[in-house]
């Protein structure tokens, strides 16, 4: 099955070791949550996977990638050119602020069609049809007209759906979602999380969901890794981490959630799923 296997991932910037031996699996068809407070290293882990770590940083370890048919034993061994071929094609990323990743002077349709024409070598007509299909999939209203509009003409939630459409445009095996709901209100957050769940189930995506919000994790993640100071301090199923945390740090994070039962409080199996 497609996905990622990260082993002993270390990243150093100057004299500061930002990641201190991260190990976790993100298999296909599963949402793997990566949680932690600011500075824990969770976003840097996602950037290292996609090869966008800061210039001058030193990275070691293994990031094995399997796309279901073939794979790469270690993404860290790839040349920049080889990584560019994978990035956006087989490994994609959605960022926290869609306005920063979308070009304000280009229509949504242009941004979608340029992406698929570059990676999939589609002609103009096929790329235009693919753009409308993608917007339908992520439930952007009136996709035939939406492709002619510009980013400033959409709400924040719609822009995040468009960013997700661009990310999945080339049928990636792995999707990294970095705080995709942070800037959205609660009801819009719920829609984006449902969309990620549907895409994971329907497309068999391996989703690495990066967030500081354990409430988001409890709603959608299948497994959760909790990070602190560049290390994974707890890793298990959503049920285990949210309801029966083993470490004091994880217990403190859970206790900070509003209206959350005390760690260890029982729920039935159906609720846990």
Description:
With 273 residues, this protein is α/β, with parallel strands linked by helices. The chain is 39% helix and 25% strand. The protein has helices spanning 42-50, 80-86, 98-101, 108-120, 124-137, 143-146, 156-168, 186-203, 214-220, 238-243, 248-255, 269-272, and strands at residues 3-13, 16-27, 30-35, 58-66, 71-72, 91-94, 174-178, 206-211, 223-228, 231-237. Strand 9 (223-228) and strand 10 form a beta hairpin. The protein is globular, with a radius of gyration of 19 Å. The protein starts with a strand and ends with a helix.
SSE blueprint and pairings:
Blueprint (H helix, E strand, L loop, with lengths): L2 E11 L2 E12 L2 E6 L6 H9 L7 E9 L4 E2 L7 H7 L4 E4 L3 H4 L6 H13 L3 H14 L5 H4 L9 H13 L5 E5 L7 H18 L2 E6 L2 H7 L2 E6 L2 E7 H6 L4 H8 L13 H4 L1
Parallel strand pairs: 3-8, 3-9, 6-7, 7-8
Antiparallel strand pairs: 1-2, 1-4, 4-5, 9-10
Helix pairs in contact: 4-5, 5-7
